[in-house]
Design brief:
The protein starts with 5 loop residues before the first strand and ends with a helix. It is α/β, with parallel strands linked by helices. The chain folds into 2 domains: 6-201, 3-Layer(aba) Sandwich (Rossmann fold), CATH 3.40.50; 210-322, Rossmann fold, CATH 3.40.50.2000. The relative contact order is 0.11. Helix 2 packs parallel to helix 4 (119-130) and helix 6 packs across helix 7 (183-191). Helix 1 links the parallel strand 1 and strand 2. It is built from 12 helices and 12 strands.
């Protein structure tokens, strides 16, 4: 490529291979670099889902992970169910606009990935300033998720507020990308026009199948003489793990079955409390993505759950399918 173009990925929760989560753009970046692009991933210094968070002095910290440039914007530490989490999203949105472009490199293409959704405003401001192309990637449909899974009215203040950014993003972006195959109908309805929509689901990079061994601390606790039902991933509302816990409770006296849940999330402590006293269930912290394949070898059934909601008429693209 004669004149190397620069891609900025603005994703508050983008992670590296060592973050134990949110690596989608990290893996994409390797392929973009092979195509001749210069890639800068802009993420936040703190993410409650990361195993390793970044200590930042000043506005940001630059690190290189496997030849990929990361710019960690300093954001406040928060509890996942506190108002401070919302505040951290606003801090990130504002501080992205303060990054020294002369040091990072002027963007030719800006990819803003939601959630959080508020950074689409930063992306638009940068687009106008540097005459860049703006791509809005929608991993989860908000505020529709809040309405249908959180049982919030369309008139709820949070729904209306987030909805403004959603509509703004669809209207101001040059392209809209979604991981959900049927999202275009919803996106065009909110935008009020036919958007330049692209469906790019999750997937798996076969070069990452290194067969790293699962932690022995975990595998040594998994019974060898039982039927193992397991789950690996985030423990949140959308993952519908309460049904798996209910099954474990009902089968607590049946010695044939054992349940293994590997991962973290804001509902983990609640589910642990609900299953307290059950000796047929094991909770274990999240592991690196490279170790998931080895863990799956110990499971007879892999669980993935969804709530009965029209939200999923738009489609799903869970990493677990590919794992």
């Amino acid at each position: 490529m004669a004149n190397k173009k620069t891609i900025w990925v603005i994703n508050q929760f983008a992670g590296t291979a060592d973050s134990c989560g949110r690596e989608r753009h990290f893996y994409f970046a390797h392929y973009w670099k092979e195509m001749g692009y210069d890639v800068k991933i802009i993420s936040s210094s703190y993410n409650h889902m990361f195993t390793n968070n970044i200590k930042v002095k000043g506005l940001y910290k630059h690190e290189v992970h496997q030849d990929i440039d990361f710019y960690w914007v300093k954001t406040p530490i928060y509890h996942p169910r506190s108002v401070k989490r919302f505040y951290s999203m606003w801090v990130f949105m504002y501080r992205v606009l303060q990054l020294p472009v002369n040091k990072i490199g002027q963007p030719d293409v800006i990819i803003v990935s939601s959630m959080p959704i508020f950074s689409i405003y930063s992306g638009y401001k940068l687009k106008k300033k540097y005459k860049s192309k703006l791509i809005f990637e929608v991993r989860d449909i908000w505020p529709l998720t809040l309405q249908l899974l959180g049982n919030k009215s369309r008139y709820h203040p949070a729904v209306r507020f987030i909805g403004w950014f959603e509509r703004f993003g669809y209207r101001k972006s040059d392209n809209v990308v979604s991981l959900l195959p049927n999202a275009k109908v919803h996106i065009d309805k909110i935008a009020g026009h036919d958007t330049n929509f692209h469906y790019i689901p999750n997937g798996i990079d076969q070069r990452l199948l290194k067969n790293d061994r699962a932690p022995s601390e975990l595998t040594n606790q998994i019974p060898k003489d039982k039927f193992i039902i397991g789950y690996t991933g985030t423990i949140g509302l959308a993952n519908a793990l309460e049904y798996l816990i209910e099954a474990a409770i009902k089968l607590k006296d049946d010695k044939r079955f054992y349940f293994v849940i590997v991962g973290d999330g804001y509902l983990k402590s609640e589910l642990e409390q609900k299953s307290k006293g059950n000796n047929n269930i094991l909770f274990y912290p999240k592991v690196k993505k490279d170790q998931v394949q080895d863990i799956l070898k110990y499971l007879n059934i892999c669980f993935i759950g969804w709530h009965a909601s029209e939200l999923y008429n738009l489609g799903v693209s869970a990493n677990k399918y590919f794992d």
